[in-house]
Write a structure and sequence with these properties.
Layout: E1 2-8, H1 29-47, E2 51-59, H2 67-80, E3 82-93, H3 100-109, E4 113-119, H4 123-129, H5 135-148, E5 152-159, H6 166-178, E6 183-188, H7 196-202, H8 211-227, E7 231-234, E8 237-239, H9 246-252, E9 256-260, E10 265-267, E11 271-275, H10 279-287, E12 293-297, H11 300-311, E13 318-319, H12 320-324, H13 331-342, E14 346-348, E15 352-355, H14 357-360, H15 363-369
Parallel strand pairs: 1-2, 1-9, 2-3, 3-4, 4-5, 5-6
Antiparallel strand pairs: 6-8, 7-8, 10-11, 11-12, 13-15, 14-15
Length: 382
């Protein structure tokens, strides 16, 4: 099974922390939708044999599109690709876009999962983030979505925010639990270069949380959601009753995925491609009949390292069978694994390698230590 990701490169305004690719100029929105449809058609020749079980509209802010534009894109996927009847269609949306009218139209289009970017229930935090909504909009969005009949709701929160205390974070968690979604995503704030947040931090106008504070907030996140019945199935993602994001889970399990739109990535388990992260260049290339892409052929080591990186983030861990099909590490690699086991950061079963709760705090560092740079040498050792 495969997934289709469509990047919508438009937002109402720029969040202070965001370095994703988007534009606040909507004058060519129709032209962009036409271009996305063109790319879908062009790529179908190679992907026609795949069965797509997920369609994911990300961004940017996909909820900024009109229902007619969304319908056009969904129709284009279904007319050019094999799509299963039970397809999961996810739409990322801002709370202030979730009117009863919009929600009803999205549901009629076949959208059956919403990912709502709440980020915070604190209006002061939302203000410096330069979000386009207020806390009351988030509450109304969830209420409206449930009224219309959306059963699959994923709500996003952020922690590690400037001046956020542990008690404030706990209050945020209790508030999101009270909304009773089936899925919660929680991300730690990172200071990305060339963002307003980065500038403010350098100027001393904002002080982000320390690593210790972020670790405390992460541990509180995991324990609080566990007590409320949410399973941590990926480091930043929690679900009840196995209401996992089917689309994102396919990424983490190494499945193929088609990427459409400026800056989008695609992966067929042999090659990875990424599109131009420039709207004008993207549009011009498609007008010329060319795909606006760069292609990388993955080596055995690339695939090995990618499986380590994405697998360790999940509750399923890394499949040893899948991992060792790509490369056979030497004894030094297995000793690194053993050292992490001794530190209670990793566990091994006959079939998988998994992180412990303590290990999840160091996921990126552990993964990099298990990367291979050639047939006999790990990237680094303990």
């Amino acid at each position: 099974m495969s997934g289709c990701y469509i990047h919508i490169p438009f937002c109402a305004q720029k969040c202070s922390y965001c370095d994703f690719h988007f534009s606040t100029n909507h004058t060519y929105q129709d032209e962009m939708v036409d271009a996305l449809c063109t790319e879908l058609e062009m790529r179908s020749k190679v992907w026609l044999q795949e069965n797509f079980e997920t369609i994911y509209f990300g961004g940017g802010t996909p909820s900024i599109l009109t229902p007619i534009q969304l319908q056009k894109l969904i129709n284009q996927v279904k007319s050019n690709y094999q799509v299963v009847d039970s397809v999961e269609i996810t739409l990322e949306c801002n709370p202030d876009d979730c009117s009863l009218e919009n929600l009803q139209k999205w549901k009629e289009l076949g959208v059956n999962r919403l990912s709502i970017g709440i980020q915070s229930f604190n209006d002061d935090q939302l203000k410096w983030m330069n979000r386009s909504h207020q806390a009351a909009d988030s509450l109304n969005a969830v209420k409206n979505a449930k009224q219309v009949g959306f059963d699959e709701l994923s709500l996003d929160l952020m922690y590690g925010l400037p001046n956020m205390t542990l008690q404030e974070w706990k209050d945020q968690l209790l508030q999101i639990i009270e909304l009773n979604p089936e899925h919660i995503s929680a991300y730690c704030l990172t200071v990305e270069q060339k963002t307003a947040l980065s500038k403010w931090v350098k100027e001393g106008k904002l002080v982000v949380s320390s690593n210790d504070q972020q670790s405390e907030q992460f541990e509180l996140l995991v324990s609080t959601l566990k007590d409320a019945g949410y399973e941590q199935y990926e480091i930043s993602n929690f679900a009840r009753n196995e209401h996992y994001s089917r689309h994102n889970t396919s990424y983490w399990k190494g499945s193929k995925y088609l990427g459409i739109g400026p800056s989008a990535h695609g992966y067929n388990q042999t090659e990875r491609y990424w599109n131009q992260a420039n709207n004008k260049v993207y549009l011009n290339e498609l007008k010329k009949g060319s795909l606006p892409e760069t292609i990388e052929t993955l080596s055995d080591f690339d695939r090995f390292n990618e499986l380590v990186m994405i697998g360790l983030r999940t509750k399923w861990g890394v499949s040893k069978q899948q991992l060792f099909e790509n490369s056979a590490p030497n004894e030094e690699w297995f000793q690194i694994v053993k050292n992490y086991e001794d530190k209670n950061l990793l566990v091994q079963t006959e079939e998988h390698i998994l992180l412990t709760n303590a290990g999840r705090l160091l996921a990126d560092a552990i993964a990099s230590d298990l990367f291979l740079i050639d047939t006999s040498t790990p990237l680094s050792v303990l």
